[in-house]
TrEMBL record, chains A, B:
Pfam families per UniProt: Pyr_redox_2, Pyr_redox_dim
Highest classification ranks of the organism: Bacteria, Bacillati, Actinomycetota, Actinomycetes, Kitasatosporales
InterPro entries in UniProt: FAD-bd_OxRdtase (IPR050260), FAD/NAD-bd_sf (IPR036188), FAD/NAD-binding_dom (IPR023753), FAD/NAD-linked_Rdtase_dimer_sf (IPR016156), Pyr_nucl-diS_OxRdtase_dimer (IPR004099)
Species this chain originates from: Streptomyces lavendulae subsp. lavendulae
Cofactor: FAD
KW Secreted (keyword) present: no
Protein name: NADH oxidase
Database matches in SUPFAM superfamilies: FAD/NAD(P)-binding domain, FAD/NAD-linked reductases, dimerisation (C-terminal) domain
Length: 460, 460
């Protein structure tokens, strides 16, 4: 049998996990692996960038799980600073450009993995390209921001967007001594939560000294004579002075290439795959990571949920399948955790608006509890909001905001959602209890008890 | 309809939860509630006693969720220092003794709740009743120990037993400045874990300066002329000097009364109930808390698992049922969490010996990971052991030992066990990921990945 050729486009979590897993299953005599990466780095934790910027992580290299050299040592022909600029699916080949020399060449494949990731949304605004305006999506972005902060230290930072990246970057800049203002378009920060829970994050951020401006529509980045950002202007006519501007508005799947080649994408522009992570309708093409849509098991539809943990799993599944094994990625329930300073933030399943959009009738309850037994020293507040389906009592979603241990508490709900449990079943769960770790009724169980009553009271 | 009479025997978690829930559903015009409690206190956290002794919790009163007066204010006729000494089931009445006056009287019931709790195992050894030898099962026990520590401060403590209470009391006494020696009969401390995992606890305790002596059979408590304990002697002929001795050998269901009345008990002596917590074969008698056996859903048998969190749930279920509502307690999966100083310890499901005893064929895997992303500051080691059934790949049990966040990590496995998930399904779980909270592959998922391979390698 002829040697099989695997081409991987994109050298971060999904792409290199796929390449590594395929290599584990098939040696170089059976499988030739070529991977293309536009940037300088591979297999790094983009999620770690805020902690590098904030100084908790000493250096960039700590975020790199595996360097290009390490991949090459495992017989993966890895080409960094090389961008794939065309997919020729009928001809089973890709055209790649060396970003240093500009030289282009075609590489043939038998199997193709697309792991092109996501790109930060950059609104087309005057000044958006100015010096001092930064995204934080890639390690190259992080390096540029870090260089800028070190070369031009300032006092005032404006963060645009109040999602995960926005609040994490706000914390990072506070840690570096900046006075931070967060401008965001929503009613409350953390639009991945319902507004009532986002309000708790809002209050906590303000108490940490972070200014948050809601319903703020950025219209322009003001610059000085040298083209450096000096302030951010909003539609309300306000100007927020800034020595540095960080964009955390969100990301979108980087799928222009794939769309040009006719591959199927969903409503958010992410590639659509089957359960083995094969692109729908294309036998020889797999895709994973931030460039795909994943099945939301609770809502029953696909969504774009860019997260390193999904990307790693996708890579593992793809690598198993292209390496001759068998694995599937059944979908997600929408779990995400974060923190801003000491406040932990978590969600899983559906928010109210998601449940409405999914056509579900539901009840919501919110309870206040503590992360440890109330009498245990350092007990911190924890608020849990829970959604349950009317009539059936099926758990639909949980949001948690609180002190230490609040974030990973959401995992209980994530597993219960995956199992399709009702809130009655959740009440009976045998969760770990000891005073340093939980009140005798875990806050998630307290919420479930209240949800059981609410379901009963709501009728059908 | 005549007013119904509910009698509750035992005024801690299960009994008073049942009384309170019944009262919530039925007012005093419909239901008369009488509760008998031998001790001075009601509705307290016995699990909190080590933290009161250790000084983290300021005072005893903080451990009391609801005082006798508060219960009485809610129309519960609560009689403290009153012990029920006979159950007359055919006559539907109980005989109670006032422990202050010695006076006895009969109280009739329509429905009876038994919540008599557990009592510490006290081996019949010379000196076991000496001054300075303490159990820590009830708040009265805790008060006696606390008084003793304050009146006769010493330097050396011996803890007998290395289960949850033993290790927690070891920590408490270290915090009070004692040199602590823990004597235990097993190969390793924490026999609720497999010995390999107990070995990790052993090493950590030694590094904290706690001396542990394994395979130690206590034969005698040596006393001075005034009858105060001065040392603990073992079968090996060793003597361990002690200014205070704490017994943490375990507890057994306090069911002598119930057995005398002919109620059914299991192999551990705990009462046997149906799923509504009604004593099997007895329409009008309910039982819950540390005096019952609970159904172990993984092993398919009943066990005695004395834990405050179960007791509270039992009380809630019993109170709903005796109050005219409907609730059930489906069983447990054997989750327990604890800590000794900064080391967190958790288990759920079956240990190797449990799985063997249950007639299961299984594989075990153990992995080393960290509680946060490896590069995040303060990342601490976390070891996860996982058992999975051969052939089916069904998850059977998880044990975790490690740094902050290790203990409650086990809840993920507890929910997965309840749902009957396979380790393949666990690998795909959508757990919260962000660098301050987890590596990109959560340690539980890493263990599950390894378990999947082990199941495949093991064949049928």
């Amino acid at each position: 049998m002829a040697k099989e050729r695997l081409v991987v486009v994109g050298g971060d979590a999904a792409g290199m996990s796929a390449a590594s897993q395929a290599r584990r299953l098939k040696g170089p005599a059976e499988l030739e692996i070529t991977a293309f990466e536009r940037g300088h780095f591979t297999s790094y934790s983009a999620c770690g960038i805020p902690y590098w910027i904030g100084g908790q992580v000493a250096g960039r290299d700590e975020l790199i799980a595996r360097t290009p050299e390490e991949h090459r040592a495992r017989d993966i022909d890895l080409r960094t600073r090389t961008e794939v600029v065309e997919l020729d699916l009928p001809g089973r080949r890709v055209r790649a450009r060396d970003l240093e020399s500009g030289a282009e060449s075609w590489t043939a494949y038998d199997k193709l993995v697309l792991a092109t990731g996501a790109r930060p949304v950059r609104p087309r605004l005057p000044g958006i390209g100015a010096h001092g305006v930064h995204g934080v999506q890639t390690l190259d972005d992080g390096r540029r921001l870090m260089d800028d902060l070190e070369r031009s230290p300032g006092r005032r930072a404006v963060v645009v967007g109040a999602g995960y990246i926005g609040v994490e970057m706000a914390e990072a800049l506070v840690r570096r001594g900046y006075a931070v203002t967060v401008l965001h378009r929503g009613e409350q920060p953390m639009a991945t939560l319902d507004p009532d829970m986002g309000g708790l994050v809002h209050g906590a951020m303000n108490r940490m000294g972070i200014v948050t401006v809601s319903r703020a529509e950025v219209t322009k980045i003001l610059t000085d004579e040298e083209g450096r950002a000096v302030a951010v202007a909003t539609a309300a006519g306000d100007e927020y002075p800034a020595d540095v501007v960080v964009l955390g508005i969100g990301v979108e799947p980087r799928t222009a290439l794939a769309r040009a080649a006719g591959l199927p994408v969903g409503t958010s522009g992410g590639l659509l795959t089957d359960l083995s992570m094969r692109v729908r309708g294309h036998e020889e093409v797999w895709a994973g990571g931030d460039c795909v849509e994943v099945l939301d098991l609770v809502a029953g539809r696909t969504r774009h949920i860019p997260l390193g943990t999904h990307a790693n799993k996708h890579g593992q599944v793809i690598g198993s399948n292209v390496g001759g094994g068998y694995a599937t990625f059944p979908g997600v329930v929408g779990t995400a955790v974060s923190k801003v300073c000491d406040l932990e933030i978590a969600r899983t399943g559906l928010r109210e608006r998601d449940a409405l959009e999914a056509g579900l009738r539901f009840v919501t309850v919110t309870i206040a509890s503590t992360n440890t037994a109330g009498y245990y020293p350092g007990a911190e507040p924890m608020t849990v909001k829970m959604l349950a389906e009317r009539r059936t009592g099926r758990l639909l979603g949980v949001q948690i905001v609180g002190g230490a241990g609040a974030a990973k508490r959401v995992d209980v709900a994530a597993v219960a959602l995956t199992a399709g449990m009702t809130v009655d079943q959740v009440v009976s769960l045998d969760l770990g209890y000891a005073p340093p770790f939980s009140p005798v009724w875990d806050p998630v169980l307290v919420a479930a008890r209240k949800a059981v009553s609410a379901v009963r009271a709501a009728g059908v």
